[in-house]
Write a structure and sequence with these properties.
The chain is an alpha/beta fold. It contains 6 helices and 19 strands. α1 runs parallel beside α2 (61-74), α1 runs parallel beside α6 and α4 packs parallel to α5 (189-196). The longest helix has 22 residues, at 294-315. 44% of the residues are buried.
Length: 316
């Protein structure tokens, strides 16, 4: 039983590192399996973060995550840069030991597990998208809208998120062009009507973005639009390109081990972080399809750590 840990945290974004800080300060020495490609989560690919409390001058996304990691390690958290490939939560009795397996061939066992793997924004998959990511291309209006004050903005999508982002971005941009590939929106009527009543939003239907253009000095400068019915193309100015076509929760590795919602997020019990399996908790974007902000993920990581700590005390 000596190799059984008190807590394993799968994932290393704001939720994972915050959970690690709380559990480490409580003396549980959690193991954080941080991932190989993007330890630190989506903020690793973000430039300046201006809406995280405590940084009035802003902070670079990678720097913020480095500081969270250092804080977790300072209190005794252990970090492994590996990817979880499978879990064994089959014994659902309280106090049972959970097993986590990684791509590196390691097998870890723990009394509690926190799933904090986040989500991945769906990409357009067009030329220029990756090149100008963080330099004009964004997946979060709340995070980056301020940077495009008095500049032309394009929003891609047709759901509630796209409508909400277009409406929000109209406060900053000189114009907002909402591009949707179909002739009807998936968004709710109230969200569509709100966007239609906004004089700064122009709708371009039956159209897709074929390419994003720009340069090293200015970042994104324009996009090529293609009418899917006629095949005609045209370029329009765009310093900000906001992709709002949904997110994919990083929960596939669970393979049915936890109960998931229809969108792939882990189902938690009310305002807690308890999942369908006792001793397993979920926090961050993989359990949140609404807010998806660094600060809300960090708060949920705190709650997961406190839920896990309470569970450990109750099952000792």
């Amino acid at each position: 039983m000596s190799d059984i840990r008190d807590a394993i945290i799968i994932g290393s974004g704001p939720a994972g590192y915050t959970a690690a800080i709380y559990l480490a300060r409580a003396g549980y020495q959690p193991l954080v399996i941080a991932g190989v490609l993007n330890p630190g989560g989506q903020l690793i690919n973000t430039t300046e973060v201006e809406n995280f409390p405590g940084f009035p001058e802003g902070v670079l996304g990678p720097d913020l995550m480095d500081r969270m990691r250092e804080q977790a390690e300072k209190f005794g958290a252990m970090i492994e840069y590996d990817d979880v490939t499978s879990v064994d939560f089959s014994d659902t009795t309280p106090g049972a030991i959970r097993t986590v397996r990684t791509d590196g061939g390691n097998e870890y066992r723990a009394r509690t597990v926190i799933v904090a793997t986040g989500s991945e924004p769906r990409k357009l998959g067009v030329p220029g998208e990756q090149e100008f990511s963080g330099r004009g291309v964004s997946y979060c209006a709340t995070c980056d809208g301020f940077f495009f004050r008095d500049k032309p903005i394009v929003v891609v999508g047709g759901g509630d998120s796209a409508m909400e982002e277009a409406d929000f971005l109209s406060r900053f941009g000189s114009s907002v062009t909402l591009v949707h590939r179909r002739d009807e929106f998936r968004a709710s009527r109230i969200m569509i009507e709100r966007a239609q009543q906004n004089p700064k939003i122009e709708f371009v239907m039956n159209t897709v973005v074929d390419e994003i253009h720009g340069d090293n000095a200015n970042g994104a400068t324009s996009v090529t639009l293609r009418d899917v019915t006629t095949g005609e193309t045209r370029d329009i100015d765009a310093n900000g390109v906001f992709v709002a076509i949904g997110h994919t929760p990083q929960t596939a590795f669970l393979d049915g081990a936890l109960e998931l919602a229809g969108d792939g997020t882990v189902i938690v019990d009310g305002g807690s972080t308890r999942t369908s399996v006792p001793g397993v908790f979920a926090a961050g974007d993989n359990a949140d399809s609404v807010y998806r902000q660094a600060i809300s993920a960090a708060g949920m990581g705190c709650r997961a750590a406190l839920d896990a700590q309470m569970y450990l005390v109750e099952t000792e």
